[in-house]
Every structure is written in structure tokens, then in C-alpha cells.
Amino acid sequence: MPPSKAPPLIQRHLQPLLSEALADTPAVLINGPRQSGKTTLARQCAAELPYLSLDDASQLAAARSDPQGFIRQIDRAIIDEIQRAPELLLALKLSIDQDRRPGRFLLTGSANVMSLPTIADSLAGRIEIHALLPLSNAEIADHAPDFLERACKQSWAVPNLAYPACVGEVFVEQVLAGGYPEMRQRATPQRRQAWARAYMTTLVERDIQDVARIEDAARVPQLLTMLAMLSGQLLNLSQIGGQLSLNLRTAEKYIGILEKLFLVRRLPAWSRNELNRLIKAPKIHFLDAGLQTALVRANRDLLRNDRGRFGPILESWVFGELLKTVSLSSEQWFISHYRDKDQVEVDFVLESPLRAVIGIEVKAAATVNAADFKGLRRLREQCGSDFLSGILLYDGHAALPFGADLWAVPASWL
């Protein structure tokens, strides 16, 4: 039997930004979940640099025992999985202060290393940080990441043969497969879910220890499953802690750890009064719909008979795609959710640094009517002239206007 061919490399949209950063910054960090493609991207961006992996037991032992000596022997390098030896960051700071040539170090981290309590000093002013989440829908389809630009300009009505809508069961399969490259290579949904379960077991048994020492690791799989079931809902720490026999502080700590590992993310509430955002309840979202699907044991047949179960998974998928989209923007867009005293909601609110607002609602159905825009119309009233556009993402073929600045847009165009 001839050897199977390796799948073609997918061009990552972050690559040009990394190349720009390496041209003028001493150190660049690619931060993101394990198996999201960080190592492959790093070696593509800096093929000329020596490669060191802290997943290698010998390299890790050397880095931990003598961080300064380890870095002193390196002029320039890719250092993979830097969170395994955060002691190196102080040594890197000293080395960069002595030699500030750009592009000396390209680091990758599978945890949010800049927030780890074990880091003694900061690389502020010496490092540029970029997040690499799993593959985006645009990357998989080999399309330009122009959803945000089109949303700002409301350029949905222009015919564009490069944007055929993916709908129905084909779209459901695309969402359930998630964005992890290794997971997407599995031939069947059953094999993809087996990969996802093994992936999360590895995180619990090993990677969590890189982030924090926890007292009861057995509770983490239960917490992950509960958060997968609650994805898209308001975060109630008392409810979660009570069901898992965890006190409030421990529940908060464990969710914080899962955030550092890029598994979940809190989505803050939006308000015209920015101070109110700090006190309103956030929502909790899974960052990859494929992992969420494995945890809630969803599959195509189940969703065919109960389409309502697809809604929360689709909402998580949209959140992940929006995070990937805004990470490529030169502007820092703020993502939040809207919920007012009348319980009128909008799933996602994107706000630019100049306070321009785009509202995005998600509907796991092929039909749309005017009533579906209730939340977006309420948000438009709140924002006045700052409101750019309201978008209802749905399982359809075409973009449809629904009044001033309101559009129904195929979700697969994200």
C-alpha cells in the first residue's frame, strides 16, 4: 500500500502579522491552545531559526535548572511551549536588554503565559503577542478574512461568486468538526470525537499543571462538561459550584485555569455606561465547537431530530469565528453581549475603539422574519448614530435586507 499523502498546509491569516512583528520586535509570542497549529506556523515564519521544544524532557530540564545559562547559549531561536518553563521569560528579558535586534526569539505558548503567577517580570516593550486559535472558517475555505470589513460597509448585496453559502447538513458538519487541524483530519465524526476526548484528557492530566496546582483535578472533566452544556448562557458561579461541590472561590479559580488554556472565554455584558460592564453578568462560551460537541455528545443524527440542540453549538462556533476575525484587525474591537432589563438580548456586540457598534444575532434555522430582529432593533435604539449594522446569521443561501442597517446573512459567510 503506498504511503498516504500529508494533507496540504492551510495558509494561516496570522502569518503576515507575525512576519511584520519579527521585522521590528525582539521577541514575538504565538499564544493559543495546544494543537492549534502554533508550531507549524512558527516554523513557516522563521524557518531559518533553530528550533527548541520544551516538550522535550532534556531541553525542559536544562531550561528549568539554569534559565540564564540556557538562554545565554542561544543567539536566536524558536522556543516551543514556553509556558512549561516560565522562568525563561526573565532570562529572555535580560538577553533582549543586551541585544535588541528584531526577530531574535519566536515563542509559542499553549497557555496564557503572560498571566501566569509564576512569572517574576514582564517583557513589556520587548515582546509582541498574537493569539492563534484553531482554524477559522475562512482559512478552511481559503477565503480572505473580510467579514468585519463587509459588515462595516454593509456590502452584502453585491454578488460575489467567491462566497457560495454552505447550508443544511453540510454546514452542520462543518460546525461540528471544529477548527483543530488534527481533529479535522479524522475521517468520521466518531473518530473526531475520540480525538477530542483524548485531547481534553491530556489537558487535564498534564497541561493544567503548567498553569496552576489544583486540589481536585477529578472535578475538571465534570466542570468542562457542565460549561459545554451551559455555553452561551449567563455565568452563574454559585450554580456551578453547588452542583460540583466546589466553593465559589474554587469554581472561579478552575474556570480561570480553563480560560488560560484557551478552552472557554467569558463574554462581558455591553452597556453604554462602560462602568456597568464590570458589574453585569458575563456569559460563558466554549472557544471551539468541535470540543463542545464531543462533551455534549452531539452528532448529526441527534441534531437532525432535535435542531434546538444545534443553537448553542452554533453560537459557540460564531463566537470563536468572531474572535479569530477581530484578532486580525488593526483596531481593537471589543466583543460583548447585550441584555437589557426587559430580557431583550443580542448574542454579540462588536464595538470599535471609536465606539461604532455592530450587533450580531445567531439563528440555527433557514427561515428569517422581522420578529427575529427585535434585539438588534433595541440595540440600534440604544446606540443611535454609533450603530453601524445589525446582522442576523442564519442557515440560508443569500443576504437579505430587513430595514435600515439590518441584514440577514448566511452564517457560513463568517
Distance between the termini: 40 Å
H and E order: HEHEHHEHEEHHHHHHHHEEHHHEEEHEEE
Number of domains: 2
Strand content: 15-25%
Q: What's the β-strand tally? A: 13
Please estimate the helix content.
40-55%
Question: Any idea what the shape is?
Answer: globular
Class inferred from helices and paired strands? alpha/beta
Mean pLDDT: 89
Biggest sheet, open or closed, and with what strands and sense?
6 strands, mixed
Low-pLDDT runs = 1-5
What is the oligomeric state here? single chain
- Estimated radius of gyration: 22 Å
Count of discrete alpha- or pi-helical segments spanning 4 or more residues: 17
- Strand arrangement in the largest pleated sheet: 8-9-10-11-13-12
Report on the architecture of this protein:
The longest helix has 23 residues, at 189-211. This protein has a 6-stranded mixed β-sheet, sandwiched between helices. It is of the alpha/beta class and 414 residues long. It is built from 17 helices and 13 strands. The model is unreliable at 1-5 (pLDDT under 50). It has 2 domains: 15-131, 3-Layer(aba) Sandwich (Rossmann fold); 137-413, no CATH class. Helix 10 crosses helix 14 and helix 14 runs antiparallel to helix 16 (310-327). It is 40% helix and 15% strand.
Topology overview:
Elements: H1 15-24, E1 27-31, H2 38-45, E2 51-53, H3 57-65, H4 67-72, E3 77-80, H5 88-98, E4 105-109, E5 127-131, H6 137-141, H7 147-153, H8 168-176, H9 181-184, H10 189-211, H11 219-230, H12 237-244, H13 248-260, E6 264-267, E7 283-286, H14 289-296, H15 300-305, H16 310-327, E8 334-339, E9 345-351, E10 357-362, H17 374-383, E11 387-394, E12 400-401, E13 406-410
Parallel strand pairs: 1-4, 1-5, 2-3, 3-4, 10-11, 11-13
Antiparallel strand pairs: 6-7, 8-9, 9-10, 12-13
Helix pairs in contact: 10-14, 11-14, 12-13, 14-16
